[in-house]
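WARN retry 2 of 3 for item q-0093 after timeout on previous attempt; input resubmitted unchanged.
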Amino acid sequence: MTKRIKRIVGGELLDFDIIEHSIRYARHIVLKGGTIQIVALHDGSSRIRMLTRYELASSMLWIARPLIDWVIGEMHAIIIRGIQCRLALTKRQR
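OK item q-0093 returned
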C-alpha cells in the first residue's frame, strides 16, 4: 500500500491519501485514504483513533457496508495492539 501524506499536525494527527493498494478485494472496495489521530488523555495516557476512507465500486455492495466497516475496525484494532506490544517491549528493553 502506498500512501501520500496530506496533512500533519505535529504529534496529534496524520491525514493521508492511499494512491496504490493491492488488497484482495481491490476491484470492489477502493481504499481512498485515512486519518490517524492521537488524543492525549488527562491521566497522561493517549488514545489512538483511526479512520479509513473507502468507496464501493458498485452500488450493489451497499448491503455489505456494515460488514466492511466491522472488518476495517478489526484491522485497526490489530494495528493498535501491535503498536502497544512494541511500546511495551521497548519499555522493557530500557
